[in-house]
Amino acid sequence: MSPIHKFVVVSSRLPVDRAEGPDGAAEWRPSPGGLVSALEPVMRESGGVWIGWTGDTGPAPGPFRANDLDLVGIGLSAEQFRDYYEGFCNATLWPLYHDVIAPPAFHRRWWDAYVTVNRAFAQAAVDQAAPGATIWVHDYQLQLVPQLIREQRSDVRIGFFNHIPFPGYEIFAQLPWRRQVITGLLGADLLGFQRRADATNFLRACRRAAGLVTRGSAVRVGDREVQAAAFPISIDAEALEQIARREDVRKRATEIRLALDEPDTVLLGIDRLDYTKGIPVRLRAYGELLREGRLGPRVVLVQVASPSRERVGAYQVLRDDVELAVSRINGEHAEVGNPPVHYLHQAYPREEMAALYLAADVMLVTSLRDGMNLVAKEYVACRYDESGALVLSEFTGTADELSGAFLVNPHDIDGLKDTIVRAATISPADARRRMRLMRRRVREHDVAYWARSFLGTLERDG
Ligand code: GDG
Q1: What share of the chain is helix, strand, coil (3-state, %, to 5)?
Q2: Which atom of ligand 1 is nearest to the CA of 398?
């Protein structure tokens, strides 16, 4: 097939999941997310194509159409799944880039698999891109792809966006392949990060690991200049608010509070079950507050912990820790039919998530480290009546944007407890003032704004 696409998105996962249809044949179901809704208009306008992994170890489907999108599926063998995905992506890069909250493992075999898989993604992009095309590569799983494309194609513009933090140099320097990663990334014309601090960390790594010269946000690479800057990602705030305003969703929110026995205060946590999200510190603070009676008798915590990376060791340990903590709290404080923690290790449809956001008085986001944290923004988008309070970790990208939140250091349990109490006892007027501030930010800087500003900068300066 000749390369025909003027716009190519390369991300670890495709925006569809393979499922079994009613007749037993494979079919593709949309897995909607902010990224898809932001990029869909650009994809349609420019006849774009999306390259990504299908999410299983079946054979690669190659180019196909689903959901009105042109897609190219990359396959992973069982070995690549283990060494590249579970290994180098989830057990080396993820903990390293999140400030080594869990110890990263370094294995040469995993690195080799990372190189091989990155090559396959890069080749697919090269094959799909029309002359002069724009290629947008996403995230830490694909850091070598920009340079691997550049080696074959000098005619294309390449952008890269890192969804997770970029660590300080003292941490990044642990990576045995740090120079190769920097070189891989610098194949791009524009590198986007969530926060300015991430871009600064990256620029420092260019100087220290690769001996390059930087000036402001630019890195000189031979005769090219690469830009590194912050583009904080966001959500489709309008679409989510529309869901939250639906009558059936509002009714469901009322039902949830009824099912919880109409407490005075509903606290909510929604996270992938990941050690970066600070679920254990949240439970610790909540357990102590219950013991001290500081939240009153009619309080509940609903904690959705959606299953994630269940075969990786650190995630199994975390799950055990969280479930032990939950049952300790419930064991100590529950009355029959009335547990103080409702723990849900399940994934829910968007509507149920919106109903939960509507049902919660206080949203708890206590990540130890988080590139952005979209859950915080989703809560704000759903609170169209301007009520509710957000407790937000300083170590999220979102904290740079939402000045109306109650900011906390999640490592400081006493500080966290005090902040939860303040948020739970906020006056309606103060809540409104804070929520209004946050809602304005999330509405104006939505995911479409993010995509426009990244692609605009790539076209202009890249
Ligand atoms: C990475 C970075 C950065 C969760 N459970 C369910 C569900 N979710 C949705 C949430 C939200 C998304 O998943 C999670 O996004 P986060 O930003 O909170 O976190 P990560 O998954 O770690 O994402 C992060 C992000 O990339 C974007 O750049 O912000 O820092 O780590 O949208 O609503 N959605 C549904 N059911 C669930 O059970 N439908």
Answers
A1: 45, 25, 30
A2: 29
Q: Which residues pair with 226 in a beta bridge?
A: 219
Contact 11, 35 (CB under 8 A): yes
Whose tokens are 């990224």? That residue is 35
Interval between CA 269 and ligand 1 midpoint (Å): 12
Identify which of 274, 372, 400 to mutate to test ligand 1's pocket (most ligand atoms within 8 A of the CB): 372
Q: How many residues does the chain have?
A: 462
Pocket of ligand 1 (CB under 6 A): 163-164, 233, 270, 272, 304, 306, 347-350, 353, 370-375, 378
Contact 397, 372 (CB under 8 A): yes
Q: How far apart are CA 114 and CA 144, in angstroms?
A: 9
User: How many angstroms is it from 56 CA to the middle of ligand 1?
Assistant: 20
Best residue for ligand 1 mutational test, from 374, 380, 450 (most atoms within 8 Å of Cβ): 374
Vertex 85, ends 82 and 91: CA angle to 5°?
90
Got the DSSP string for 269-313? Answer: EEEES-GGG-HHHHHHHHHHHHHHTTT-SSEEEEEEEE---TTSH
Task: Please report which helix (H) or strand (E) contains residue 36, including its range.
Answer: helix 34-46
Contact 56, 34 (CB under 8 A): no
Per residue in 249-290, pLDDT tens? 999 999 999 999 999 999 999 999 999 999 999 999 999 999
Alpha-carbon separation of residue 112 from 84, 103, 174 (angstroms): 8, 20, 17
- The residue-averaged pLDDT of 437-457 equals 95
Residue type at 239 in one-letter notation: A
**How far away, in angstroms, is 440 Cα from ligand 1 center?**
21
Task: State how far the Cα of 99 lies from the Cα of 168, in Å rounded to an integer.
Answer: 8
Answer whether 185's CB lies under 8 Å from 158's CB.
no
List the structure tokens of 286: 């909540």
Nearest CA to ligand 1 atom 26: 163
pLDDT tens sequence across 378-423 = 999 999 999 999 999 999 999 999 999 999 999 999 999 999 999 9
CA of 271 to the centre of ligand 1 (A): 7
Cβ atoms of 157 and 189 within 8 Å: the answer is yes
**Which residue bears the tokens 């110890």?**
103
Helices 374-382 and 428-444: crossing angle in degrees, nearest 10, is: 120
The end-to-end CA distance of the chain, in Å, is 28
Q: Whose CA is nearest to atom 19 of ligand 1?
A: 373
Crossing angle of helices 428-444 and 237-245, in 10° steps, is 130
